[in-house]
Amino acid sequence: MAAERGTAAEALVGQVVLPGDLLLLPAHYDEDAEGERLRLSAGTAPQGRLLCGPGLRRSGAGLLVTKCGLLRHRPAGGGAYWVDSQQKRYVPVKGDHVIGIVTAKAGDVFRLDVGGSEPASLSYLAFEGATKRNRPNVQVGDLIYGQFVVANKDMEPEMVCIDSSGKSNGMGIIGQDGFLFKVSLGLIRKLLAPKCEIIQELSQLYPFELVLGMNGRIWVKAKTVQQTLIIVNILEACEYMTPQQRKQALAKLSGN
């Protein structure tokens, strides 16, 4: 049960929060006949919409924590709060870019395993330049990098491989070569962060191709199989290594 009085969200950023904790947004208390009621301050209204990310849900004028982890905050725009945890099971979210595995063809729709509770659907027309005559060559077992346009608890997840302008923008069928593996969702968010040190350090070791899916899947392809496996092992281990340990491991590999 959440307490009647919560804690200011800004004060808990970077700290561990537990399910049931109530986070108060920038506001003041206004006494009235019904007692204390949280109201957003008119003078500090954000310029944009405040986003409630994974691990949180709205509760009145505050945010209720629904899973254990570290509270994160992005102040850009209206701002966003979310809980960063070591969750392994992926829940589809609209706008997420993920790696799916084609499991079946059902008429004009492909079924993809995205690591969620149910498969996602992908229309053959959701590719750049696709028409009824010019269909994409998608086979069962292919890897698809796409984006969710529909993702909620009441509807089947739906993916596309084009952006709002109809361009692929890097999405589509991933090459047959390479290596696909799975990591925690927390590590994926760390790797997708702007100017990620891990990616920058690996790029100095070997040239390679990398595709990161928000569903915890990573596809890697280097010049040789040995280099590919080395990068895979480093990415899997970096979740449990300190920055200093990672730098030492990379230094040994570059020295060889």
TrEMBL record:
Q: Which family does it belong to?
A: Belongs to the RRP40 family.
Q: Name one GO cellular component term.
A: nucleolus
Q: Which UniProt keywords apply?
A: Acetylation, Cytoplasm, Exosome, Isopeptide bond, Nucleus, RNA-binding, rRNA processing, Ubl conjugation
The organism of origin for this protein: Vidua chalybeata
Per its UniProt entry, which superkingdom is the organism in? Eukaryota
Cite the CDD domains for this sequence. Answer: KH-I_Rrp40 (cd22526), S1_Rrp40 (cd05790)
- Could you tell me which residue ranges the Exosome complex component RRP40 N-terminal domain spans? 15-86
Major localization class: cytoplasm
Q: What's an example GO BP annotation here?
A: exonucleolytic trimming to generate mature 3'-end of 5.8S rRNA from tricistronic rRNA transcript (SSU-rRNA, 5.8S rRNA, LSU-rRNA)
**What is the name of this protein?**
Exosome complex component RRP40
Its subcellular locations are:
Cytoplasm; Nucleus, Nucleolus
User: Where do the K Homology domain residues begin and end?
Assistant: 178-226
What's the name of its gene?
Answer: Exosc3
Q: Using the record, list the residue span of the signal peptide; answer none if the entry has no such feature.
A: none
What InterPro entries does the annotation carry?
Exosome_RNA_bind1/RRP40/RRP4, KH_dom_type_1, KH_dom_type_1_sf, NA-bd_OB-fold, RRP40_KH-I, RRP40_N, Rrp40_S1
UniProt xrefs under Pfam families: KH_6 (PF15985), RRP40_N_mamm (PF21261), RRP40_S1 (PF21262)
The UniProt subunit note reads as follows: Component of the RNA exosome core complex (Exo-9), composed of EXOSC1, EXOSC2, EXOSC3, EXOSC4, EXOSC5, EXOSC6, EXOSC7, EXOSC8 and EXOSC9; within the complex interacts with EXOSC5 and EXOSC9. The catalytically inactive RNA exosome core complex (Exo-9) associates with the catalytic subunit EXOSC10/RRP6. Exo-9 may associate with DIS3 to form the nucleolar exosome complex, or DIS3L to form the cytoplasmic exosome complex. Exo-9 is formed by a hexameric base ring consisting of the heterodimers EXOSC4-EXOSC9, EXOSC5-EXOSC8 and EXOSC6-EXOSC7, and a cap ring consisting of EXOSC1, EXOSC2 and EXOSC3.
User: What GO MF annotations does this protein's record show?
Assistant: RNA binding
